[in-house]
Amino acid sequence: MLKINLSNTKFLSLVILGICLLSISENVSLANKIFWVVITIGSIFINKFKFRFKSFLLSIYAVGLLYAQFIFNQYIFSEEFFINCLGVLLIVKYAELDNKNNLLSYNLICMVLSVASLISGQDILSSIISLSIIILLVINMYLIQQKEVMDFNVKNILKYLGFGFSIFPIIIIFYLIFPRAEINFRLFDPSKSSLGIPDTIRLGSFESFANSDEKVFTLINQNYKKEDLYFRVKIFDYMEEDKSWRPSSSYYLYNTYKNSIKISGFKAIEEKYQIILEPYKRKWIPVLDNSRLTDQSIKIAEDPFNQTFISLDPIDRKKQLEFQKYQINYQLGKPVIDYYTLLPQSVSNELVDWVKTNKQSRSNTEYLNHILSTFADGSYYYNLSPENNSQNSYADFFLRGKEGYCEYFAGTFVLLARLANIPSRIVSGYYGGELNTVGDFYEFRQRDTHAWAEVWFNGKGWVRVDPTSVIPSSNVRNSLNNIFNDEVNTASSIFTLKIFKNLSYYITYADFIWTRHLLSYDNNKRKSFIKDIINLQFSNIFYWIFAPIIIFIVLRLFFKINKANILTWMFNYIIWTSKKENKILNSDTHQQILKKLKSDYQRKYQSFFNLYESFRYQNKNIELTTIFRTFMSAK
Predict the structure, then answer these.
(1) Which of 73, 200, 247, 355 could cross-link 419 (Cys pair, CB 3.0–4.6 Å)?
(2) Mean pLDDT, to the nearest integer, of 519-546?
(3) CB 596 within 8 A of CB 582
(4) How far apart are CA 213 and CA 230, in angstroms?
């Protein structure tokens, strides 16, 4: 029969190692994962041998592996690097699991990695993985402390799992009662990634940013239509001499044009929405037009003029925010209006001539519609990988190449508007998203990055214009997002089949429900929960806390119900309830215990003690009914 001994704990430790590496591998490159697999195989091999100076040599080996991990993290000291280093050290530690102390140290590193995974992920998968690691660690710790060899059978399996699941109520109690601090592993600036919006816009700068399927945020749907979902992130309103666009500082705008900017109104309308941010490690917050935070105590700065929001700290864990929509009145004076028409001297004369020819007697509205009609005439194509425009020439795109994507069309539109002395600016962010029809929420991914234009009209304020939307769908050559149609172009994916698509929606919906409830349990709900406990007002959550304990106790009792244990329970009950002449010692035999009882109790339980002696020491087979009959008659 299979036995569990110290060597078997190594197998369980190897299972825990695999789960720990899985928990931190989401954002790890394929080459880095292969590196982990190779050194894990090496550690398994080294573990089988004992040699002198093993710990010292493994320490030198670990230093070399940490340097290799530093290379995989692109020489950047970041949160990911330090967590990955813990993974590498865990792999090396497995190579010297030859005594109890090393096993305990190994389990401690695993515990740290499980907590790191839960903090960084917070989704249902991360929570399940972290909980699985903790349960297996409890079982592993229990096995390490066992001195005798145990059979690997159903009874012992349930016993080990019982010890593991016994931690579950403790985790729930800690979650419900103790306040949750903003735990942060960030010691240095976070590593660079392709998430978000570039800091400056040149022709082609969006290509590397849009080519990603990574999730950025989730919108809890409030019956929104796709055409309403323009989430703004950055405003680009100043063109440099090299024809690149950059954002103007809000401090500069207010300090320079404070007498030319007036924002009033802020009349709340009956429209609120919530978003769940992924840990994308940037400070920007995507928002809809004319929105304000409902909770003004959150450490997020608002720029009401540009209608953008910036977090004081990078978003390095999931966060749920609620916004209120407002009606806002904007008034701009001539100095700031002129600022939104500024252009460098390097603008192409070809574009200047085109504007002179086409503006002429047209009104501003008619002229802007003429630009849109030009984009929609069938000669322009949407392509996420157009020919390289190394000169950043809007004239080449507009007059000759006629192939590009959102930033090409939005940038050209704003440039042509400003050449006609029409105040305008580029707005970048996310558009459309994908509707999960099961849970009725929108998921926005990096592929949904978009750029559009805003034009200033007196009496109306900033008006959104999306030049990309007028491109005929037949002229779309390469697209990753939902700008042109409601279905994502994923023909190469198995999820194009409806059954798999719906299955993915259900899985995503389960994760959405878990994440939303996890993030919505704030300090106010925690205080309310504690108040209910004090007032003895118990809710259904107590079933979740105590159900595992009750199940564990029932299972333990079920597997302990036999004649020997029943006799022992009855024997202990008699000792506990009977009056005694002398104190009973742990070393006393059953005959000595009987003699220490008062005389009336000795006569009362004499037959039961004789039965107990026959079963325990004479190995007589006694029927269960006889045991109960003898005990009840004595009572």
Answers:
(1) 355
(2) 64
(3) yes
(4) 18
CA distances from 464 to 166, 181, 197, 225, 231 (A): 57, 40, 19, 16, 12
Beta-strand (E) ranges in 189-236? 215-220, 230-236
154 has a pLDDT exceeding 70: no
Q: What is the DSSP letter of 389?
A: -
Q: How many CB atoms lie within 10 A of CB 544?
A: 13
Q: What is the DSSP string of 40-64?
A: HHHHHHHHT---TTHHHHHHHHHHH
Query: In degrees rounded to 5, what are phi and psi of residue 610?
Result: -65, -40
Cα separation, 103 vs 105, whole angstroms: 5
Checking 372-376 for CB contacts under 8 A at 24+ apart, the result is 372/413, 372/465, 372/467, 372/470, 373/470, 375/409, 375/413, 375/467, 375/470, 375/471, 376/470, 376/471, 376/472
Give the pLDDT band (50/70/90) at residue 93: very high
* Amino acid 410: pLDDT: 94
Task: Provide the pLDDT for residue 24.
Answer: 85
Mean pLDDT of 15-40: 89
Query: pLDDT per residue over 160-189, tens digit each?
Result: 666 556 666 666 665 555 555 444 444 444
**Could you say which DSSP state residue 318 is in?**
-
Residue 301 β-bridge partners? 310
The phi, psi pair for 629, rounded to 5°, reads -65, -40
Partners of 404 in beta bridges: 382
Q: Distance between CA atoms of 568 and 574, rounded to whole angstroms?
A: 10
pLDDT band at 533 (very low <50, low <70, confident <90, very high): low
Residues ≥6 apart with Cβ < 8 Å to 270 = none
Read off the tokens for 600.
């009336």
What would the two tokens of residue 597 be? 């009882």
**Going by C-beta distance under 8 Å and a sequence separation of 6 or more, which residues neighbour residue 588?**
596
Alpha-carbon distances, residue 300 vs 292, 303, 314 (angstroms): 11, 10, 10
Question: β-strands 381-383, 403-404: how paired?
Answer: parallel
| Highest averaged pLDDT of the listed ranges 106-110, 273-277, 383-387, 500-504 | 273-277
DSSP H or E stretch at residue 426? strand 424-431
First to last CA, the chain: 44
pLDDT in tens, 473-487: 888 877 666 555 544
Nearest to 286 by CA among 237, 191, 218, 202: 218
Q: Which amino acid is at 617?
A: Y
Whether 146 has a pLDDT exceeding 70, the answer reads no
Which residue has better confidence, 151 or 383?
383
Distance CA 418, CA 339 (A): 10
3-state secondary structure 569-585: HHHHHHHHHCCECCCCC
Give the three-state DSSP class for 419.
helix
- Report helix, strand or coil for 561: coil
Contact yes or no for 455/417 (Cβ under 8 A): yes
Predicted local confidence at residue 491, as pLDDT: 44
Q: Which of 115-129, 277-291, 376-390, 498-512 has the highest mean pLDDT?
A: 277-291
Q: Do 320 and 520 contact (CB within 8 A), yes or no? A: yes
